[in-house]
Amino acid sequence: MLYADVIVDISLEKLDRVFQYRIPPALEKSVVVGSQILIPFGKGNRRMRGYVVGLSNHTDYPVEKIKAILQILNRSTTIESRMIALAWWMRRQYGGTMSQALKTVIPVKQKIKGKEKRYLSLAVEQGAAAAYIVQHGKRSKAKAKVLGELLEKRRIPMEWITGNLGVSASVINGLKEEGLILIETEGIYRIPSFLSKGERGEGHQLSLQQRAIADDFLKEYQQGIRRVYLLHGVTGSGKTEVYMELIRGVIAKGKQAIVLIPEIALTYQTVMRFYRGFGNRVSIMNSRMSQGERYDQYERAKIGEIDIMIGPRSALFTPFQELGLIIIDEEHETTYKSDTIPKYHARETAAELARLSNASVVLGSATPSLESFYLAKQGEYRYYELPERIGTRQLPHVEVVDLREELKAGNKSMFGRSLKEKMEQRLRRRQQTILFINRRGYAGFVSCRACGKAVECPHCDVTLTVHNNGTLRCHYCGYTIFTPKTCPVCGSSYIAAFGTGTQKVEEAVKREFPQARVIRMDADTTSGKDGHQKLLSVFAKQEADILIGTQMIVKGHDFPHVTLVGVIAADLSLFSNDYHSSERTFELLVQAAGRAGRGEEAGEVVIQTYNPEHYSIVTAAKQDYLAFYEQEILYRRLLGYPPVGQMMAVLAMAKGEKDGEQLLEKMKEEMQEACSMLGIMVIGPTLASVGKIQDIYRSVMYLKNSRIADILTMKEKMEVYLNSLESSLEVQVQFDVNPVHIY
Ligand code: ADP
Ligand code: ZN
Ligand code: ZN
Fold first, then answer.
1. Ligand 1 pocket: which of 240, 276, 554, 555 to mutate (most atoms <8 Å of CB)?
2. Beta bridge partners of residue 360, listed in sequence order
């Protein structure tokens, strides 16, 4: 390569552009992406430090004007320069500024006094806090904000309140003096001692299939082959055991590993397995940790105190010296996509980080994302399969029940005849049942029978959600009121709360099975520290017969006494305007079915639906991923949706109702020629499906075409266009490349 793309010292503001430098022949072999170099900069040719973020063979500048790199400062790339190169890639791939990307990949140390951390919690009853918000919320916005958060999360690090919420220390002191909150102090996070003492155990002897996969991977690794692998294994097929074997092999070569797990599956069980396998060379990160705590964990990785980091998305940026392997479990999960700028996908970002670090990536899932399976089929990813459960355990038997037939037969209950009979049977046999409902559109709300309107947030385009303490709350902005006695629109007193899906199911279970011991898991019953974990452990100890819940109960838990899973209404996630909805429904049903029969007894699953012939449901019932994939990819190909096509959302947010849309309209016109030359289709702009959040209106348009490079070219053009506009224009524009949901 002849030229290097260089960003100058990251303390400068000039971050968002690269400068091209010539690579002198003497340095040609040693300059790589991530190298720290010395360059002559600006008119005076000031000697400055720079980072190489890209290499190329051609330049758009006149060759004689390009200066040469003076010197290379480090032979091998440092962690820092690798992260800077990654940030540069993320900025190009996902939009936003370089400084936003840097903040994502390199956590900044926050000054914490000594080694102490402070936490806030409520000092009064929930009801009293809610009352305070309702009465004083208008005048004391900051105080209400803090109390609102505490109602949701119970215990919050002080620095999160002052940092993320932007609430001042004097407001917090005020709340303390009024006796509304408590402030506690605690030492910094370390591995809980009962965990680090945990005895190390031998793992299982791998099955032949597990062994074959591990051997193949490690052989390639030994040969220096680095790439992305997809491990497709049904639930309970022993994927986690394979991950641990791969990690052992990689660590034995003096390398380190990152294991990404969706937060919701980051269970005590999983964590304990890793501790037993690797002792205190493992560290864990979770999203409840403050920035300071996370920084602490990153530091431990940097100085080599640990070899393995387990955590959600952000654990990807753990600064290991010799990163050798990145594992992404449940790779199909949408939580791997960031919802703040840069809107990166951990799967793609992991592949790029691995490329920069000479590491491999292993993606694992029972229901791979269409993207990953597509790439595996194309030979981009190496494909491994574990088609059977470990041991003699069989996949459960699945029955699909047509709810229309139930209605015809005069059954108006939530439970079809088959499900009801099977539940009774389990109660008699003292076995356990899980009832699963699809969450979408099923939060509790209040609506008026006279005018038909639901009570909405005045600041957002959504209905308010019912909470146990007699309040209604907005999930987007935190606006809270007491549940009104009369309709705010027409004044009628015929106003009633509609329970959440889970509440309704609970009521029906109690009516029809009065003898059953029932646990309901949803946002209302699991708030508070470990609330989630407590309920699950009650169920695991068989102190309850029936567990009712949403998504959060179907991921990764292992309850050996559950022999029946009932899906109350499988269709709830099927019909939305989002092209992902069939994929999400299939995933959820397969995952839910996977909860049954994990012990000695065989499992049964009943899927109740109004659309028994829909391919998501038919293929999920057969647990036939391939059949689902073939149908779904056909539809994606037909309509040019990812992974066959490529897509980018351009989201505009503004205070004025029409401002965002007008800006997008103007930009579309401006870009028309370039778009048609590249064969890019532009859809919209229109109002987003949640058209307003916190009094900010949201409009969206989509770009669609078959090549990601073309889409990124357009993104760059739009970024230049937006920068050229006067800054007085108060519209914020965000890009989302291959979004995981439709705006
Ligand atoms: P997955 O991650 O694919 O869901 P796990 O690795 O959790 O599968 O394995 C499922 C169950 O089988 C776990 O209880 C695990 O301890 C057990 N298991 C996994 N591999 C073996 C093996 N080779 N021999 C015996 N038991 C195993
Ligand atoms: Zn009304
Ligand atoms: Zn709101």
1. 240
2. 325
